[in-house]
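Hi team, as promised in this morning's meeting, here are the two structures we talked about. I've kept the exact order from the run log so nobody has to guess. The first one is mostly here for context; it's the second one we should focus on when we meet again. Sequence first, then the predicted structure tokens.
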Amino acid sequence: MLKRKIESVLAEWKNSGSKKPLVIKGIRQCGKTYIVRKFAKENYESVVYMNFILEPDKKSAFAGNIDIDTIILNLSALIPGSRFIEGRTCIILDEIQECREARTALKSFQIDSRFDVIATGSLLGVRGYGKSGNKTDAGHDSVPVGYETVVEMYPLDFEEFLWAHGISDKVIDSVKSCFEKETVVPDGIHKVMMELLYRYVIVGGLPEVVNMFLETKNIELTYKMQRNLIAEYEEDMVKYADDTDKSRIRECFESIPKQLAKENKKFQYSVVRKGGRSSQYIGSIQWLEDAGLVQRCYNVHITELPLEGNSINDCFKLYTTDIGLLVAMLDYGTQVDILKGNLLGYKGAIFENLMADFLCKSGQKLYYFQKDSGLELDFLVRYRGECVILEVKAKSGRAKSMKTVLNNKNVYHINNAIKLGKYNVGREGDVLTLPLYMGYLIRDKLVEVIVPDIDLSGLL
């Protein structure tokens, strides 16, 4: 049984007393259904569950402009033995993207407030979901804005992966302490963490894949399961996309391994198909991003905060949100090469995507910096209130662009950099070196700021 961070989010939602239905969205097979059913079983006297893909007949309970009493009556008839106890029942609407009327009904559930409602959806953001013919946008008129709480769920992040391997909180806390204090990680812990990191690279965080690996330690079986899941994602592209986009979405997705080759400084449509243009494929990239499969990493005009405000909309790289997906898209045998350290030129792309995985799963957007002069920085992040460089090295290596930027602070306005690689914690002036596995700890902490009152006495 995998421990997931979102369990604390669910508990916080329930304990807050909020009557807003909770909507959990995320990539298919990231564990939404399992964790929601587990939480509801442990915290409610009665659980009423329906899956609109497996049980399409349940859609009829929400048909028409009807009130909550009628919906409950309909569900009571459709689900024999179901009990609706005020304040002690959780209603789970699984795969809600298949039933627009159920999504619309969340507003009524919030106003009624007698029952807690949790909805899950794998493709809530994609164009044309749940629409016959798939010809129009995703029915934004059915989304009850202001009447639901939406939470993004991801595959296991690296810390959850450590929990799955039985690594104790005590060990993890010691690593976090070394990160915060910039002290060396003890050799024994460092060695184990590096080995687990390489496992994470080849397995990723999809729960079914992680469980297969934990049960068998068989790389071939793990790879086959990853390929099966990729096939399911590609089936979704056929099922939910517009007819004109089906092939283009798949072409964009399958081009990612080539796009990440080191010589490519941005996503190139000609790599997708010879003569390809932005107008043909930009909608396909948006579909993949909305489905949770990929995330764009935008180039920025200047190395300053705010990064989003300085980003270039039509200049970006594309990374898979889960590192295991990228590795599974490569040749079978790449997994062994990674574990043995035999990977040559392409390792840079893999470890860059690993950093993207870390950042994505902590809810951060991705940015990089590249100029025609050849100056290139792998990632830029807001960290401790500053714009900071992240350089990712699969092995120890030079980072010329990073040094150029740091040596010209008056031009680039960057004072610090973090270099991650196959080494322990250390510092050389304005460069903090970290082992690769600490990448998941890099995030900016919100600072509580109290705005003082303004003296309005002279204006009254």
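And here is the second protein, the one for discussion:
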Amino acid sequence: MALPLTPSQPSARRARCAAALIASALCLSAQACASAATEPAPGQAVRVEPLGAQPGVPAAQPEFPVTQPQAPAAEPLAQRPPAPDEPVTQAQGPAASPPSPGQRARRPRRDRGTLTNPERAGPAPAPDVFSEGLDPTARAFSTLGYRLSWSGASVTPADASVTWVGLAGPSVLVADNSGAVSALSVESGALRWAQQPDSPNSRVLGVVAFANLLGIVTEGTVTFYESGTGNLTPLGTDRTPRQRLARVASTEPLAIGNLLVYGTSDGFASAHRMDTGTSAWSYRVGATITANPVRSAPAQIVFSSDAGEVLNLDAGTGQAVGRFTAFGGPGAPLATSDRAIFVASLDQSLYALAPDGRVIWRLRNQKPLDQPPVFVDGRLYVTLPDKGLSLIEPDTGEIRWSNPMVSGEIISARGTDVIAWDGTTAWRIDRQSGDVLSSTALPGYTRLLTDKPVGGSIYAVTAQGRVSRFIPR
């Protein structure tokens, strides 16, 4: 009979030790797995199943999820599906909202607010530099010898555009084709007030200053406002803030004392008394008047019709001082000095007229003239179609210099140079030689004007009613 084999004692001891080691390893592995399931990675919130009312374990929150701080342990949450209309708040940063039961936990999404790849991001939107008090063309104006003083905005609606800009008293005034007029402070560019003097269909032709008032002129009315506050102010014998004009205006108005002078589409030069609200006089010129009247001698006004008639009137009486008729209508607004009237005509001529209408000189050209002559600081500038911007001797009509590379009109003079602008490009020109000292494009601006013809500031205006003031450096 075979006997069972009995292992030796040392072998049995080794077997028992190996079994104990295996059991211990299995136990430690199970504990590690449980710990890994309950301990989150640093900065990561993990949903933990409630353990019930056990010592040292917080009770589960019954209704709302809890946003946990970045800590090694997370508070236990209640097991419930979200309500159908319950808003879900996304966690900010690395912590993510807990998943619903049965839903696989998602890894925290990376923030997509900033794209570091410029090719994927595309072009960045242009900043609203005006809201920061800056101007995108400040550097361009610096090449002309000016620096930015301020930038401001009118109340021009987004679907409207600027139709008139002027300076009166302490304000820059901006009118648009919605019928609104905005007053911006000359000192800071802040919006002082805005008014709509007439119906939206009424065109604002200009603003005149009278006493401490501003008169906003439309085609049929003049409405008075206190210049500082924009409050309606009664005026005239009927004590009303709005006065009706005797004729429908077609030009920008001009104020001389208490007279408001304007031209009409039916060929009249007219004057309105702002102190009484009545008509002062009317003089029949002939054809339609669209060119703005200009002041000549201290109390004289010059009108020009589309048919080429030039009429110099005494502002107080409305009587004619001088009259002249060109072969073509004026191609641009007139200019005057204390001794002459300068007319750029469509009959290919630049005229200098005496106040009584006599021709002092005539400068013939190969094409019609459509740029306005400008008389500033004793000099006459005009763009001639075949020669470019030119300096003309005002007494004789002699051309002192011409620059065929420059066109437009003179905006301001300062020191030894002048600033010319053609609607898109501005030039700084030596006034002695006509040489270009610098030039720059001015995108976005549709109007430039100055508060003084010599050494003044330049106000640049966009079609949307942004106004920037540039002062000499």
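Starting points for discussion:
The chain has one domain: 132-472.
The CA atoms of residues 216 and 394 lie 35 Å apart.
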